[in-house]
Every structure is written in structure tokens, then in C-alpha cells.
Design goal:
heterotrimer, A alpha+beta (513), B mainly alpha (289), C mainly alpha (319), A: alpha+beta, D-Maltodextrin-Binding Protein, domain 2, 2 domains, 46% helix, 12% strand, C: 319 residues, mainly alpha, MetI-like fold, two-stranded antiparallel sheet, 74% helix, flat
Chain lengths: 513, 289, 319
């Protein structure tokens, strides 16, 4: 037994060493290197790229073909920049956990994506290269990421830029209606001005109670289901936070607005216009309902033409037409689609990288944001993933699907804009459709006026998730009739009393900083 | 069963069969849906809700999977993990379980408690990773085989089984001059076939279902086993799309169900082979006499 | 003088005897220690070495500083857990579910094994066993998915049937009253066939001569189960039960999480789902480690208590 004790103790003390050195290598090396980083190598000199530099990049992987080590795009990059590129592919669902263990063991890759509170916390540990003094040396990057852009400044201290970010959709989703269903019921598609919340209700009710899919059965289609934030917005309820009289307030305090909204929803539930199972439906189930020709009004993105194809595939005798709409107008004239907060996710360079490596990495990104670079990262390599056909038009080859050349462009970094879904072989019609959609969607942004500030509030971090769950519970109980509408007053009071008040205070403090 | 059963036994037998048949049907019903969907065209899933007979039969989903290179690679990895993982784990666990079943052994209680303790307390993900990476096991199969080789549960239960082997049996072998290792290999293990079969099954199933540790310990994505592949198909999170709305790969519902079945089939096939051992029983009685 | 000489002599004899005994013991015990050693080594390396990670619960952990250099915050995380607004609710829900599972779910595989053992038609028995074992390989995503398909209000098969028969539709998935039975049913559905395996193996180890003797004495099948099978299963049942108590404050995360929705939250919210919810916002390793440590301590108390009782009753127990 004594022997056992000794061995255990020995091994335990060994573990101390292992633990310490692992923790250390992260911290110390970092501070040393940041100081050297500030003297950046000039671009001209670096353009020679004499030395071959190994670079590791971590990427989230969801699905699609996995890149092999000798993927044509990797070979292309290796040759072009004289690097030895290694991808560390991390399964999307475990990205957060895996990253925490890699960080603890001090083996972080040279380039990786990180967002939100981790990005904020790791800054103070000196984890990232500050790009502020470096960007001017890379003209394309400098143009794509101006230092005064809201998304670039997001979560960064005022004098530093710790990462590149995705600047993309401001509003991606809007209300869309099955126009062929309307035609079947003899209802004309309302114009943007005619599309009030009452008109919305009228259409949804017709969908729910009549036979828009012409299958001979009334009422087997659904009016509308959950996840339609535009209704809430029509009643003037904030997209989390809104500015009112110079102060930021959260939606949980908008009791009067909520009462009007809840009265609307409760009526819809009682009359069978709102899906009876709306509480249960998750995102993909709602999409299943659209594809299965069961749902006619929904919140969807610019891929609606593909949705039309899916509906058609499941119901070959139909000619489905999906029409993107402006969001409905509420009783007080409010209308809006939820807007994204851009800049919360960053692509960072590990501060352990030396000046040469940083330069090489930035060269790649500088090239990536150009038309030439984006084309390689998105369409793939001409002659391998796509080619010109006899008519002089581009078309994909059989390597497009199995090679998945857009993997890095979709999963790691994209240049600003929404043209990442426009490919060399996209038709003029497709491009126009895409542009028209983008215009329509961004016309009605419903913004979160405190976007990004929540990461500065400790009470928010500790309490928000639970407080919000309680509040949503109350909202749903009211809609399904388990509680009277007045119950929302109590829910709002509880929200305030159990930490909400403190959150409001801290968010407003962060805003005034 | 030559003798006529008494009335009570007959009632009892009817009850046994009725209960088991009812329970089996209850299990078959949803299983049938999974099987049907895997053979049905995509359309059925979207338009028909719950169904038991496909509107038409197709093997598309299975062809799709078997021609998918990631699937075949994952299958290979799963076989390696399971085969060696089970052998290592069974060897070490049965030795440990048997050793600890000797009640007179000093320090036994302390070791037993030490084992039990690990069932309740664990250091968590990060320190475990640090140990595995400190031993340079990252990206090797040993990272899965070794940490999972002995588990508190199997050692404790196996110890219980070995402990129930009659003492006289072992003593008589020892008096005949049989060494402990030979006794273990030639007498105890064959006697313990039901237990060995049971825990081999547990080992195979456990290794086959390895998922999280593979994702954490393998940076090399080509080593990911089948379960990782399966989960990528089953868990459809909105996060996948994120802000990008582009035509992402989506697996058809039929392919998802087919993947569930294909991953489960080896385990269902292996079952009857092991089953015969734990149904037959061991004949301690006949040996004793 | 002489007295002390005799004394020292006798001490010497005793020492020699003790040394001989020890040598004999070591000779006898050595092979067994050798068998145990590799396992112990693995336990030490892969379970005990990482144990220093529990310190995370007492620290404000950040990956960059590692476990040791992170700031020491003492019991702050535990204070936070116990003063959580919903602590008692979480505890109540967890205990309720575990009570159901321990007293209804736990005996079920035993029952199944006993009944399967009574089946004399070999092929029937084997086929049935394979079918009963199959659900173990369906993940909760699939099981819950099928349940929802079958039980949801609008177009779920069961509700369509109820409607056709003229009954009112039932909100199985959102009515809190149905959550616990549904959860328990799922557990039994998925796990009973799998859980029965270990008892079948134990039944297989029973001496057939015992049954033969009982049959000659004219004992009914039910009496044979009661007087032969169950007593022989006692050891393994006690072990399994004690181990089950060790996880008395754990419930599987994925299953509950998938069955959970805001309308059944008052009965379905447990520590696992709660930690997940707050973890999404803050990714706080320290707090979730503290919650895990709390659960471990409760499990330890349960096991030690159960084991002590088992030993008093003459059972071997788990340590």
C-alpha cells in the first residue's frame, strides 16, 4: 500500500509539471512575441517569399467532402506563397470544446476563428496579433477592412484590431409567401404598403382553414408557425435591445407592446391560425414543413429558388412559386426584419507567429479579398473544379462536388459582401435575383442597438440565459392560454428583479464607455 | 418438458409469452419506421408524416452511402478502434476483475474503492487531454484504446462474477499443482464464458460507439470513426448555415435512416454469436461432481 | 536481564514467523498483484492524473493560464450554485426523475431477463432477445424524433387517431403532466433489452442441478424463480443497484434536452440542461466543473451509504 501511495504521489507531482508547462507555454511565449510583431516586414521584401514557411489553420467542419492533405487548392496556395499549409479540421459541434483543450495545451494553430466572449477574454492574455499597424502594408485588406468600420471595431479596444471579421448580410431573412397558394385561393399578393399585420392574419387564416394546396382537404395546411420574428417586430418589440430616450432598453421591459403582440398571437392560436405545435418545431422541422408543402408563410433566406425546387421534387405535379415580401406593418407602423450584428466572429493570427509568418499569412488574406483570390477560394481551380465549355461559358466539373473547393471560403474566411454564393457559372438571372433580394431584405432592418455590448456585462453572462428562458416560458404560456395576458407584467417584473435591472445598468455603462 | 404442466404453470407461461410479444411489438413498431424510411423515396418523408410502408422501394440511400469515400474511411477506422480496443480492454479487465475477486488479498478494499471513486469523480476534459497529449498519444489509436481500456463498471461487475466461482474448485486445481496463471487461463476463463461474452459485447458496443474522444483526440480527420459521420448527418443545427446562406450539403432523410441502420447492423449481427454463450450457461455443477 | 533476553528472543521468533508468513503471503499473492497491476496503472494515469482538474471548480479558469495559474476564487462557484434562483427546482426535478428510473426503470431489465429465461423455445427466445436489444443503437435524436412525429398535436399519428375516434387531442409533448411518464417510457423502451443482458449472463451461471431438484420436488415455475433464480441474482442486483445510486443526481443530457420545451420546463429542467443553457452564453468551465463536483459528492455519499447498508446485510457490496 505504501508503494502505491508513493507511485500515486509521484505521478501526481509529475502531473503538476505537465500542467504547469502546458499552461505556461501559452502565456509566456505570447508576451515575448507580441513586442517583435510590431515591426512588420515591408511588403516588397516579403514579396520574394524566399523561405518556405509552415502554416497551420484550424477550420470548422460540418459536412461535405473532407479536404485531403494534397487538395488542389492547398497545393495552389503552397506554391503561390511558398508555404506548407496544414489544415486542422475540427468537427463543428465540438469546435468550442476542442478549442479550449488545444488552448490549454498550448498548441493553438497559426490561424483560427474565434468569437464573442472568448475573443474578448483571450485579448487580455495576449493571444492575438494586433493588425492595426500591419494592415496599411496590405492595400487590399486595408481597403476591405477600414479601421473605422463598425464590424472591424466590434469587441476590439479602440487602438487595436485583433482579427479580421466576416462582414456580410445585415438582413438575410424576410417573410416569404407561397404565391401559388394565394392564386389558388383567389387572393392577390399584397404590395409592401398593403401588407399589414391584419392582412398577414387574413392570409394565414385562409391557409390554415381553406385548401391552398388543392389536395381536397381543408385545414391540413398550416397558417404560420413560430420563428417568425417579423410579427414581434411589427408590434414594436425590440430585437433584444433598442434605444429609447437616449437609453438602451431590453424587450423584456416593453410590457405594453408585448400585451398587443400576445393578444394577436393568442387569437391566432385559439383560432387555429398559429400552428398548434409551434413550440416544438425546431429550425429544420420548419424547413421540412415548407418542403413538404404544408406551410405557406415563413421566414426564409435568399435560397428560396432552391426551396421551390425542393417542393417541386416532393410534389411533382405542383408549380410552387415563393415570393419574398416586405415584413408586415404593425398597428403603429413598425415593420422590420431582424438584423445581424456583424463583426462578432473573428479570424485571428496566433501571437506566437514570427514576423515572417505573419507577413505570409497576411499576404494570403490580402490576395483572398481580391477578385482573383476569391475566385480561387470559391470556384476552385480552373481546369480542375470548373472549366469553360464549348460555348465559352463556365461550368462545374465532376470534381466540384467531391473536391468541395469552397470549404475554406464557407467555413473560415470570406471577403466582405454577400457575393460568396455567386459563382463563375452563375447565370445573369441568378445574379439579378440575388441582388434584388439583397435590396429588398436590407430595406427593413430591425437592429439590436446593443449588439456586442452584452459581452461587457458580467451579470448578462451569468444570468441572461436563464432569465430569458423564464421570460419566454411566460410568453408561451400566455399564448397557449395557460396564463392571462396580464401575466406578462409579472414576468417582466421578475425579469427585472432577478438580475435584469443590473444587466440594463451594465449594458448602458458599456455603451457610454 | 415431458411432464404436463400444472395449471398455475400454464397460466404463467401464457403470461410470459403475452408480455414478451407485446413488448417486442412495441419496439418493432418505431424500428419499422426507420427501416421503411431508409428504403423510401425522399418524398414520403416530407409529405406523409408517420408511415410504415414506403410508396415505392429504392436502394438509393444505401448506394449513396457506400459510394461515399468518407463513409468507407470511417468504417475502416471504426473496425480498427473496435477490434483492438476490445481485445485490450477484455484482457486487462478480466485480469483485474479476477485478481480482485480473491478476498484474502491485502489492499483489495483500497483498490476497489479507488476504482469506484473514478466512477464518480473525473478531472474533466482538459486535464485528460493534457495527460494524453503529454504521453504523445494524440492522433494515435492508443489515445482511444488506453484511457477506455479499464472502466470501473466492468471491473466491479466482473469481480462480482468471478467471486461467485466456488472456492473449492480453485483450491483443488491448486492442490493439483496448477499455477495461478494457468488456473486463470485454462479453468476460470472457460468457466466464465457468459461473463466474458457479455463484457466482450459491451466492449465492442462501447468502442463502436466512440464518438467524442475520437473528435477530441484525432486532429487527423481521416481517422474519425463512423459515429462522427453519423452524427454529422443526424444533428442538423442552424449554426451550420450561420450567416451564410448557400447550398450546403444536405443528407436526405432516407440517407440518414440508412446510415443509422448500417452503423447498427454489425452490432446486431454479432449479437447472436455472443448470445449463445450467455444463454447456454456454465456447468459448474457438472464439473464439481 | 534474562527476562529481557527471553523477551527479545520471543520477539525475534515472532519476527521470523511474521517474516515467513509475509514471504508465504507474497509468494501466494504475487501473481494476483501482477494481474491487477496493469489495470491499476491505467486507472492512475488516465483517471487519477487528470483529477487535478477538479481545482478548476475553485478557480476562475482561463485556458491561457491553465489550471494552476488561473485566479483562485474559493467556493464562489458553489455559493453561486446553491443560491441560484432555481436550485431547488432543479434538485427536485432531478430527484423525481431518478426516483422513477430507480424504482420503475431499474427492475424492468431484471423482469425481462427472468421472463426471457422462462421461454423454452430457443429460436423464439433468441430472436426476441435480438429485437429487444436493437433500440440501444438508436440515438435519442432519432427516438425523440419519431416520438414527436407520432405524438404532436396537429398531425401526430396518435392525435389523428384520437381525433378520428371523437376524443379531444392531447398535447403529449407540451403538457408537463406527460413529460415524466414519457421520459421513463423512453428509458425502458431503449434500455431494458440492453440492461437485461447482464442478468441473463448471471442467470446462465446458475447451477442447473438446483432447478432439476426443484422440479422433482414439484415446485412451480413461479416458486423456482422466487427461491432459486432471484437469490442467485442477489449479488449482481445489489452491485447494479449501488452503482445506480451513484448516479442518482445525474440524468442523461441529450434525452432530456431533446424532450424539453419551454412549456414543460417546470418539470424538465435539470442540472445538465441548466448548465448547458448558461454555458452557451459564457462557456464557463469553472462553473460547470463545480456543478459536476457537487453531483459527484452526492453520488459518493449515496454509494457509501448504500454500500454500508449492503455490508451490514451480509452482501459483498462494491468495495
Amino acid at each position: 500500500m505504501k508503494l502505491l501511495k508513493v507511485v500515486t504521489l509521484l505521478l501526481l507531482s509529475l502531473s503538476l509539471v505537465v500542467g504547469c508547462s502546458a499552461g505556461n507555454s501559452g502565456g509566456n511565449a505570447t508576451t515575448e512575441n507580441t513586442s517583435t510583431n510590431t515591426e512588420a516586414a515591408p511588403t516588397e521584401q516579403a514579396a520574394n517569399n524566399e523561405k518556405k514557411i509552415p502554416i497551420t489553420i484550424a477550420v470548422k467542419y460540418w459536412n461535405g467532402a473532407k479536404w485531403a492533405e494534397d487538395h488542389p487548392t492547398i497545393q495552389y496556395l503552397n506554391k503561390k506563397f511558398n508555404i506548407d499549409l496544414k489544415l486542422q479540421i475540427i468537427n463543428g459541434g465540438e469546435y468550442g470544446e476542442k478549442f479550449k483543450v488545444i488552448a490549454a495545451s498550448g498548441d493553438l494553430p497559426d490561424v483560427y476563428s474565434i468569437g464573442g466572449s472568448d475573443f474578448l477574454n483571450w485579448q487580455s492574455e495576449g493571444a492575438f496579433v494586433d493588425l492595426m499597424p500591419l494592415l496599411p502594408n496590405y492595400p487590399n485588406l486595408n481597403k476591405a477592412y477600414p479601421a473605422d468600420h463598425e464590424a472591424v471595431k466590434m469587441l476590439n479596444p479602440s487602438d487595436k484590431i485583433f482579427g479580421l471579421t466576416n462582414i456580410s448580410w445585415i438582413v438575410r431573412d424576410t417573410v416569404q409567401i407561397r404565391q401559388d397558394w394565394l392564386d389558388n385561393l383567389g387572393i392577390t399578393l399584397p404590395t409592401a404598403d398593403e401588407f399589414t399585420i391584419d392582412k398577414f392574419y387574413e392570409i394565414a387564416k385562409a391557409f390554415a382553414t381553406q385548401d391552398p394546396d388543392k389536395n381536397g382537404v381543408n385545414g391540413d395546411t398550416i397558417g404560420f408557425t413560430g420563428s417568425l420574428p417579423q410579427i414581434r417586430n411589427a408590434f414594436g418589440i425590440a430585437n433584444e435591445w433598442m434605444e429609447k430616450d437616449g437609453k438602451l432598453i431590453p424587450r423584456q421591459t416593453q410590457v405594453e407592446e408585448y400585451k398587443a403582440y400576445l393578444a394577436f398571437m393568442k387569437k391566432a392560436y385559439d383560432e387555429g391560425v398559429l400552428d398548434r405545435d409551434f413550440v416544438l418545431r425546431k429550425g429544420n422541422e420548419v424547413e421540412d414543413m415548407m418542403k413538404g408543402n404544408k406551410l405557406g408563410v415563413f421566414n426564409y433566406h435568399n435560397g428560396y429558388h432552391l426551396l421551390q425546387g425542393d417542393i417541386k421534387k416532393n410534389n411533382p405535379n405542383l408549380n410552387p412559386v415563393v415570393a419574398p415580401m416586405a415584413p408586415p406593418i404593425g398597428p403603429k407602423g413598425d415593420r422590420g426584419n431582424n438584423a445581424y450584428v456583424n463583426g462578432l466572429d473573428k479570424v485571428v493570427i496566433n501571437a506566437k507567429a514570427d514576423a515572417d509568418k505573419i507577413d505570409r499569412i497576411l499576404q494570403i488574406f490580402d490576395w483572398w479579398v481580391t477578385d482573383e483570390g476569391t475566385s480561387v477560394m470559391k470556384n476552385g481551380i480552373e481546369g480542375i473544379h470548373y472549366k469553360k465549355n464549348a460555348e465559352g461559358k463556365y461550368e462545374v466539373t465532376d470534381k466540384w462536388e467531391s473536391g468541395f473547393p469552397r470549404f475554406l471560403n464557407s467555413s473560415l474566411f470570406t471577403r466582405p459582401g454577400t457575393d460568396f454564393i455567386i459563382f463563375a457559372w452563375s447565370t445573369e438571372e441568378d445574379i439579378q435575383r440575388h441582388n434584388a433580394y439583397t435590396e429588398l431584405a436590407k430595406q427593413y432592418p430591425w437592429t439590436n442597438d446593443a449588439g456586442g455590448l452584452e459581452f461587457y456585462s458580467n451579470t448578462y453572462k451569468d444570468k441572461w440565459a436563464n432569465l430569458n428562458t423564464k421570460f419566454e416560458e411566460a410568453v408561451l404560456q400566455i399564448i397557449v392560454g395557460k396564463q392571462p395576458i396580464e401575466y406578462i407584467e409579472q414576468a417582466s417584473k421578475d425579469w427585472m428583479a432577478n438580475g435584469g435591472e443590473q444587466i440594463i445598468k451594465e449594458i448602458n455603462e458599456a455603451a457610454n464607455k | 418438458m415431458v411432464k404436463l404442466m400444472s395449471k398455475g404453470d400454464r397460466v404463467f407461461t401464457v403470461f410470459v409469452y403475452a408480455f414478451l410479444i407485446a413488448f417486442t411489438l412495441l419496439i418493432l413498431f418505431p424500428l419499422f419506421y426507420v427501416i421503411s424510411t431508409s428504403f423510401a423515396p425522399e418524398r414520403d418523408y416530407y409529405t406523409r408524416g408517420f408511415f410504415l410502408i414506403p410508396s415505392s422501394w429504392t436502394l438509393e440511400a444505401y448506394q449513396y452511402l457506400l459510394y461515399n469515400p468518407s463513409f468507407v474511411g470511417a468504417l475502416k477506422s471504426s473496425v480498427i478502434i473496435t477490434f483492438f480496443g476490445t481485445i485490450i480492454s477484455m484482457t486487462l479487465t478480466s485480469m483485474m476483475g479476477y485478481g480482485l475477486s480473491e478476498r484474502w488479498l491485502k489492499g483489495r478494499t483500497a483498490i476497489n474503492f479507488m476504482i469506484l471513486f473514478t466512477m464518480l469523480f473525473s478531472g474533466g476534459l482538459i486535464p485528460s487531454y493534457l495527460v494524453v497529449s503529454g504521453l504523445h498519444l494524440i492522433d494515435t489509436y492508443w489515445a482511444l484504446w488506453l484511457p477506455g481500456a479499464v472502466s470501473a463498471f466492468s471491473v466491479i461487475v466482473m469481480r462480482g462474477f468471478f467471486g461467485s466461482i466456488p472456492y473449492e474448485l480453485k483450491e483443488s486445481a491448486r492442490i493439483d499443482g496448477c499455477g495461478e496463471w494457468r488456473l486463470f487461463g485454462t479453468i476460470i476463463l472457460p468457466l466464465a464464458k457468459p461473463v466474458i461474452a457479455t463484457f466482450t459485447l459491451f466492449g465492442i458496443v462501447g468502442n463502436w460507439n466512440t464518438y467524442f474522444s475520437a473528435v477530441i483526440y484525432f486532429n487527423d480527420a481521416s481517422k474519425w470513426p463512423l459515429q462522427v459521420f453519423l452524427r454529422q448527418m443526424l444533428i442538423l443545427e442552424d449554426e451550420k448555415i450561420g450567416q451564410l446562406a448557400e447550398p450546403i450539403f444536405t443528407y436526405t432523410p432516407s440517407a440518414r435512416m440508412a446510415a443509422i441502420l448500417i452503423t447498427a447492423i454489425p452490432l446486431l449481427v454479432i449479437y447472436p454469436f455472443l448470445q449463445k454463450y450467455f444463454n447456454k450457461g456454465m456447468f459448474i455443477g457438472s464439473l464439481k461432481g | 536481564m534474562s527476562q529481557s533476553a527471553i523477551q527479545s528472543q520471543s520477539v525475534g521468533v515472532k519476527r521470523i514467523a511474521a517474516a515467513n508468513a509475509r514471504a508465504r503471503y507474497m509468494k501466494r499473492a504475487f501473481p494476483f498483484y501482477l494481474m491487477i497491476f496493469p489495470g491499476v496503472l491505467l486507472f492512475v494515469i488516465f483517471r487519477y492524473l487528470p483529477m487535478f482538474g477538479v481545482f478548476i471548480a475553485f478557480k476562475d479558469y482561463t485556458p491561457f493560464r491553465g489550471v494552476w495559474k488561473s485566479e483562485w476564487i474559493g467556493f464562489q462557484n458553489f455559493v453561486r450554485l446553491f443560491s441560484e434562483q432555481d436550485f431547488l427546482l432543479l434538485l427536485k426535478n432531478t430527484l423525481y426523475l431518478n426516483l422513477l428510473d430507480t424504482f420503475i426503470g431499474f427492475p424492468f431489465p431484471i423482469l425481462l431477463a427472468l421472463l426471457l429465461n422462462e421461454v423454452r423455445i430457443k429460436y423464439f427466445k433468441n430472436t426476441m432477445q435480438t429485437i429487444l436489444y436493437a433500440p440501444h443503437f438508436l440515438s435519442w435524436v432519432v427516438i425523440v424524433g419519431i416520438t414527436v412525429l407520432f405524438m404532436r398535436s396537429q398531425d401526430g399519428g396518435l392525435n389523428v387517431l384520437l381525433d378520428a375516434l371523437g376524443y379531444a387531442r392531447i398535447d403529449f409533448m407540451t403538457n408537463p403532466d406527460y413529460f415524466r411518464p414519457l421520459w421513463l417510457f423512453h428509458n425502458i423502451w431503449q434500455g431494458a433489452g440492453w440492461g437485461a443482458i447482464i442478468y441473463l449472463a448471471a442467470i446462465a451461471s446458475i447451477d442447473p442441478a438446483l432447478y432439476e431438484a426443484a422440479t422433482v420436488d414439484g415446485a412451480s415455475r413461479l416458486r423456482q424463480i422466487w427461491h432459486i433464480t432471484l437469490p442467485s441474482l442477489k449479488t449482481i442486483i445489489v452491485i447494479m443497484f449501488i452503482l445506480r445510486l451513484g448516479s442518482f443526481i445525474d440524468v442523461g443530457f441529450e434525452h432530456i434536452f431533446l424532450l424539453q420545451n419551454p412549456l414543460n420546463l417546470q418539470v424538465s429542467d435539470v442540472f445538465e440542461t441548466y448548465v448547458y443553457r448558461i454555458g452557451l452564453v459564457q462557456g464557463d468551465f469553472s462553473y460547470s466543473t463545480a456543478v459536476g463536483l457537487f453531483k459527484s459528492v452526492v453520488g459518493l455519499v449515496m454509494i457509501v451509504a448504500a454500500n454500508t447498508i449492503a455490508k451490514r446485510l451480509g452482501e459483498e457490496g462494491v468495495y
